[in-house]
Amino acid sequence: MNLLHQPGSGGTTLAKQVLWDMRKTLRCAVLTGATSDITAIAKQVIHLFTAGGQGQQNTVLLLLEDERILENLQDAIIKEIAERNITTHMPVVIILNCVLNGVVRQHRVFARVDGKEIEVCAEQRRKVWKSEDVCFYLGFTIRGPVAYGIQYPSHHGHVFYSGPVRSCTTCANVMESTNWVQVEPVAITKEAPMFSTSPPGRYECRVSGLRWVCKDHVSLQYQFSSWEPHRAMMKSLGYKQGGPLLDVTVISGELEEVQLPHFACFGDDPSFKEKVRVLHVEDCGVSIEQVDEVTRFHVKILHPSFSPKGVLVRSGFPVKAHCDLLLYQAKTAFLTLHAYLVPCDSSVEQNVQVGEDIGN
Ligand SMILES: [Zn+2]
């Protein structure tokens, strides 16, 4: 039985109330905590069913708060019944479930009900960033069925990424553009290029910070490039690195706009737009280009052509940088922490991560 409800509307409380009301008729149980050992859970369900021996069997009413295990649990219970040669004339278990399974495909959410897929609205669009199996609470509004509290089971811990949380007070007045759909790129390894495909919309890669706007379906491939071959030239022209150097290839489709991430903090300097350029690396050489707009964390380029590009900041005056503090716990007997203060640049952070992986 699936109990459909909005989170916070008391669905789980209602389910527990049902258990309480039924406690004298059925053997009621709530499954909480770790649910990794499905076989052990199935054994406990059967133990509860047969408690008191033959002739004392009674149906178990089990409240499940994690639907992901439902199918495996059903199989495990059937297996346990067969193994223990249980014969009965009544249902062994009634599973009461508060969460639904579904899937996200191309930024659309589908609920799986009775083997069918039904499209539902996502309560929060920003949570629909990856094509993958999900689970959620299903509710109903005037718009029709709505998926609340979408979770990606494969991403425990950092599921609801909503863009970098930055709280720099120095540049709080600098314009920032919002409403970007966060996407997770596909990457085989950390060093391999990242891939993203997207329908029309505004997207931000949560790994690289690259943003793009497209009116049609696009497929992109991108990876971090090294600034090293360009350093001497940049220095002679009076520029320094202001973000990662990104090598982007448009595989199909066309981009209206890209935004390259930068880590410079411009505070209340009104002339900052004059100090920002983009390095464009081509086969025939490199060029330094004007930008269309500078926002708090990004630099905007309209109708971009590609090959590696990265943000430059004019040198010769002090520029503050947004930094991240990275902490790693070394795999040693005693607690050893490695701390890195690095500019907010995903390529730098990735290098630190690679170094830590090797070191450990
Ligand atoms: Zn700042």
Automatic annotation (TrEMBL):
Keyword set, alphabetical order: Cytoplasm
Record bears the keyword RNA-binding: no
Residue span, FIIND domain: 174-360
Domain of life the protein comes from: Eukaryota
Location within or outside the cell: Cytoplasm, Cytosol
A GO CC term assigned to this protein in UniProt: cytosol
Family annotation (PANTHER family): DED DOMAIN-CONTAINING PROTEIN, STERILE ALPHA MOTIF DOMAIN-CONTAINING PROTEIN 9-LIKE
Name of this protein: NACHT, LRR and PYD domains-containing protein 1 homolog
Organism in which the protein naturally occurs: Salvelinus namaycush
